[in-house]
Write a structure and sequence with these properties.
Helix content is 38%, strand content 24%. It is of the alpha/beta class. The strands form four sheets. Strands 4-1-9-10-11-12-13-14 form an eight-stranded mixed beta sheet, sandwiched between helices. A four-stranded mixed beta sheet has the order 3-2-7-8. Helix 1 packs across helix 9 (256-271) and helix 9 runs antiparallel to helix 10 (274-288). Bound molecules: adenosine-5'-diphosphate (ADP) and 2-keto 3 deoxy 6 phospho gluconate. Adenosine-5'-diphosphate is lined by residues 194, 225-228, 231, 244, 247, 250, 253, 256-257, 260, 282, 285-286, 289. Belongs to the carbohydrate kinase PfkB family.
């Protein structure tokens, strides 16, 4: 039977520097990036779907067509008459990325406004992926709706995966961000933080401290990403260490974490072999950071 990997969040218009002074228009967003790479990495027994809200304008249609062409299912996506999609621009300094956003009134902020549509989308999936950005863009009431629906889906047997992907700028206060991230971890089976973000937000001194904080919230498997450095996974009390192979000629680290998530999950969901899955995540991320923009074709290694 075909299984479904559903990713939930915001896809934006992306302006990615090409290295020539020009920008390439694309579509991206952390959860869409993970869906894109999951589509490449998961085996034929899997469908990949995306859940968000978009507008009914030409740009929103183009975004959905982009996903359709990539083989990502769009049938649950909400289409709102009075909104459009957000936009972000990548700024690069020695290959390390930062972002400028125009997304404060984007359609995706309404993704949890229709409880029935949300429940229908979640009910169609065996694995559900969401991030700290997914919850950051929602009103407090809609955030509760989403977490409640995820909890229900989990009780019905779905595996829930959460990447905290901390973006302090999207939150009113650091405390609200921290509380929401822990609440999201509590409904999750796998949490995949990035150490530099979590250390800054929570004051963690070590990767072990980051992993333990989520384990204390009840998360069975925590995978702590750490850029080029040694990383760890904490699997029901047991620590696994892994060091990614060095990557030369890093061009743009956008979506390193998102592609790592996809490579890791595709391998782990299939094999439950943690060392193998960590290596698969790092191998995919290593390819992605040698190209511009969030989405590259991992086969041909061209920007999408
Ligand atoms: N400079 C790098 N060299 C080698 N691998 C890297 C590098 N940067 C990122 N990666 C790979 O990408 C993964 C995620 O990177 P990280 O920077 O921790 O995530 P994020 O992009 O979410 O901040 C790492 O675990 C590693 O496998
Ligand atoms: O910030 C957002 O809202 C985005 O979604 C923009 C980016 O595409 C991802 O955030 C990249 O994520 P990293 O894997 O951490 O590089």
């Amino acid at each position: 039977m075909t299984q479904t990997f559903l990713s939930i969040g915001e896809c934006m218009v992306e302006m990615a520097p090409k290295g020539t002074g020009d920008y390439q228009l694309g579509f991206a967003g952390d959860t869409l990036n993970t869906a894109w790479y999951a589509k490449h990495a998961l085996g034929p027994g899997w469908d990949v779907a995306y859940f968000t809200a978009v507008g009914q304008d030409a740009l929103s249609e183009r975004m959905c067509s982009f996903m359709d062409t990539a083989g990502i299912r769009t049938n649950h996506i909400r289409k709102l008459p009075d909104r459009t999609v957000g936009l972000y621009l990548i700024e690069l300094s020695n290959g390390e990325r930062s972002f400028a956003y125009w997304r404060s009134d984007s359609a995706a902020r309404q993704l949890a406004a229709d409880r029935a549509a949300l429940a229908k989308a979640l009910g169609s999936a065996q694995v559900i992926f969401f991030s700290g950005i997914t919850i950051a863009i929602l009103s407090p009431a809609h955030r509760l709706t989403l977490l409640g629906s995820l909890s229900q889906a989990r009780q019905n047997g779905a595996t829930i995966v959460f990447d905290p992907n901390l973006r302090p700028r999207l939150w009113n206060t650091p405390e609200t961000m921290r509380d929401a991230v822990i609440a999201a971890a509590k409904v999750s089976d796998i949490v995949m933080p990035s150490f530099d973000d979590d250390a800054l937000a929570f004051g963690d001194k070590t990767l072990e401290a980051t992993a333990q904080r989520y384990a204390d919230a009840g998360v069975p498997l925590v995978v702590v990403k750490n850029g080029a450095g040694p990383m760890i996974a904490l699997d029901k009390g047991k620590i696994e260490h892994f060091t990614p192979a060095p990557v030369s000629e890093i061009v743009d680290t956008t979506a390193a974490g998102d592609s790592f998530n996809a490579g890791f999950l595709a391998s782990y969901l299939d094999s439950k072999d943690l060392p193998r899955a960590l290596a698969a995540g790092a191998e995919l991320a290593a390819k992605v950071i040698t190209r511009h923009g969030a989405l590259v074709d991992p086969e041909g290694l061209t920007s999408a």
